[in-house]
Amino acid sequence: MEHSPPPFFNRGPAPLVRLAFFASLSLALLVLDARFRYTEGLRGALALAVYPLQTLATLPAALGGRAAEYFSSQSQLREENAALRARLLAASQAAQRYEAAQAETGQLRRLIGAAERLPLKSTAAEILYNGRDPYSRKVVIDKGSQSGLRAGSPVVDENGVIGQVTRAHALTSEVTLLTDKEQAIPVQVVRNGLRAVAFGAGSSGMLELRFMAANAEIQNGDKLVTSGIDGTYPPGLPVATVARIERDAAYAFAHIMCQPAAGVESGGYVLVLDSEAKRLAYPEDAGQERDKRPGKIRKPRRKDGDAAQ
Amino acid sequence: MQLSDSPAAQRILLPVRASTVLGSLAFALLVNFLPWKNVALAPDLVALVLVFWCVREPRLVGLGAGWLLGLLMDVGNGVLMGQHALAYSLLAFASITLSRRILWFPLWGQALHVAALLLFAQGVAALVRLAAGAEFPGWSIAVGPLVGAALWPVVSVVLLLPQRMPVDVDETRAI
């Protein structure tokens, strides 16, 4: 004979059973997200659901900023205006020379039969807030896939590269900063063309050049720019300046720290570049080789750091 | 108004309204989404309100609510999917298990229990992130839970206010 409680005492499954259910569900989600990135659809849908709350949460800061603007004095605005005018003049001068140089470069590249560099499309965006995750360095910007942003696009400010779009939601996007531990960027020393890969050094706000031989020709104050060999970052964007080099005979590699050129952790407005236009075609023989291999079909994994290869 | 909610001084409360629970949780989410200057020091209000309702109304708010809130936090913060979900489900379970015990203490004693609970949840989240390969951001991540626990007396007084109000003001009634 069964002894089940009458239905009005029914409380559903026991708490421990519920805990096991929800804990295993969370663990499954964790593995699916961390290893395979299969949860982007669910994330997109939920992101749209929390979007109103997030907008509401950024409203006080935006209103405060607007109020401060309203009360800023005329002389202050005048000064700022003059400074901006001077900078515009300098920038337009540089832009004119750049245009001429670009035309010349295009002509030369055509002469030697190299592929022409296509002009970059760029989208201006505003940084909404810093990421609320103490374990990573991210910012959220106010443009998303509706404005044509895609994951992987480089993000720059007026001084240089600040990071890369790692997740594009419908109306906002997450930008992983160069100083994040998982972020890598291929760079080149301007002085001698030496190529290297810069990794984020985490909470120190610096970049680190890894796997550089202890006798590599690099010195303090060297400027680093993107090398462009990854096909994601266009070549020639300022990235960092070498700040400290430690060469230790006990190690094969030098320990090189660099100061980012752009205001990676500060600043309000950024440009998102579209890198799609100049991506190289996938080599045909590599594709065939992959198909020939029997069994073991793996989906290519998308990773934040796959830009640096 | 009496601050102490120890059983000796406990008043008969009105039944809780679902709108109060939902409203408080939505407000907590909103506070968590505010652009904090230093995230590690900011209290996790969602976890605090979740603990409050799990302790007060374990039949109404439980692991399911915690899990869903955790997912929303994960997506809103752009972190690993399931990190907060796991932490909040464990937090809800621990709060429900301890709910009878916690209510026996005065408010500051309750706050001590809540500090332990919030630290536990933060520890779970930290373990998950470290296992996923993130770097340890320093011991400052323990400050947020402690600030949250310090807010417990305020939160519990404010959230119980709707249940202390009389249904209709009647001069002849004793309470």
Structural descriptors:
heterodimer, A: 309 residues, alpha+beta, Thrombin, subunit H, 2 domains, 6-stranded antiparallel β-barrel, 6-stranded antiparallel barrel, 4 helices, disordered C terminus, B: 175 residues, mainly alpha, Arp2/3 complex 21 kDa subunit ARPC3, 7 helices, elongated
Task: Describe the protein in words.
The complex is a heterodimer of chains A (309) and B (175). Chain A is an alpha+beta fold. Chain A has 2 domains: 12-69, no CATH class; 120-278, Rod shape-determining protein MreC, domain 1 (Thrombin, subunit H, Beta Barrel), CATH 2.40.10. Chain A has helices at residues 15-36, 40-71, 74-112, 284-292, and strands spanning 121-130, 138-141, 154-156, 161-168, 173-177, 184-189, 195-200, 207-210, 223-226, 238-246, 255-260, 269-274. In chain A, a hairpin with a 7-residue loop joins strand 1 (121-130) and strand 2. Chain A is globular and about 90 Å long. Chain B has 175 residues and is an all-alpha fold. Chain B has one domain (16-163): Arp2/3 complex 21 kDa subunit ARPC3, CATH 1.10.1760. Chain B is built from 7 helices and no strands. Chain B has helices spanning 18-33, 45-56, 63-77, 83-102, 107-131, 143-150, 152-164. The longest helix of chain B has 25 residues, at 107-131. The interface between A and B is large, with 47 and 48 residues.
- Biggest β-sheet: strands ordered side by side in the sheet of chain A: 1-2-5-4-3-12
What is the level 1 CATH name of the largest domain in chain A?
Mainly Beta
H/E order of the elements of chain A? HHHEEEEEEEEEEEEH
* Biggest β-sheet strands, sense, barrel of chain B: none
Number of strands of chain B: 0
Q: How does the overall form of chain A come out from the CA principal axes?
A: globular
Gap between N and C termini of chain B, in Å?
A: 12 Å
CATH superfamily of the largest domain in chain A: Rod shape-determining protein MreC, domain 1
Largest interface: A-B, 47 and 48 residues
* Quantity of strands of chain A, as a count: 12
Q: Could you estimate the helical fraction of the residues of chain A in percent?
A: 25-40%
- For the record, the count of structural domains of chain B works out to 1
Helix content of chain B: 55-70%
Counting DSSP H or I runs of 4 or more residues, the number of helices of chain A is: 4
Q: CATH topology of the largest domain in chain A, anyone?
A: Thrombin, subunit H
Shape of chain B: elongated
Mean pLDDT of chain A equals 81
Number of domains of chain A: 2
Query: Largest sheet of chain A at a glance?
Result: 6 strands, antiparallel, barrel
